[in-house]
Amino acid sequence: MKKIIYLTLCFFTLINATSYTQINSIETYDGSVYSIGDTILAGSKGSPYSPYLTISELTDKKKLAPYKEDIAFDALVISSIVSTDEVVESKSSSTDTLAVVTNISDNKTLYVNLNNAIRRKEVVAAPAVRLFADVPM
User: Fold this and answer.
1) 103 and 71 Cβ atoms separated by less than 8 Å
2) Which site among 18, 20, 107, 131 is 20 to 30 Å from 72 CA-CA?
3) How far apart are CA 91 and CA 48, in angstroms?
4) CA 102 to CA 80: how far, in whole Å?
5) Is the pLDDT of residue 30 over 60?
6) Residue 92, SS3 per DSSP
7) Can you tell me the distance from the alpha carbon of 25 to that of 82, in angstroms, rounded to the nearest whole number?
8) Distance (Å, rounded) from C-alpha 11 to C-alpha 89?
9) 10 vs 33: CA distance, rounded Å
10) What does the pLDDT read at residue 93?
11) For the whole model, what pTM was predicted?
12) Which positions ≥6 away from 96 have C-beta within 8 Å?
């Protein structure tokens, strides 16, 4: 009887320990893995008059709102990785994983849905590599 109670206790401890682990990295649809501390570049907005659709900021009402300022090619450092449920209270059943980033130029905290941001080119997944160095003329 003691063994059954002990095994049951171990089982529930293991289940609870795995459900409270912190996410340390995100794997995107193209196979890239982004971890806490990585630096990514912000891309351009779809139009000068529209906000970023996948880069958000937290409003006073604890909701995520699309970011309106142009931050093209600013460096963003990933400070943590969270789900949308941890940031806002949502009634929808779908949850996304968000990268909490800090904009180095103005120290603002933003929330980025990396998969969608890379697809929409609002985040530069991999900067272009130059094949030849600039040669002075």
Assistant:
1) yes
2) 131
3) 32
4) 10
5) yes
6) coil
7) 10
8) 30
9) 33
10) 58
11) 0.74
12) 83, 84, 113
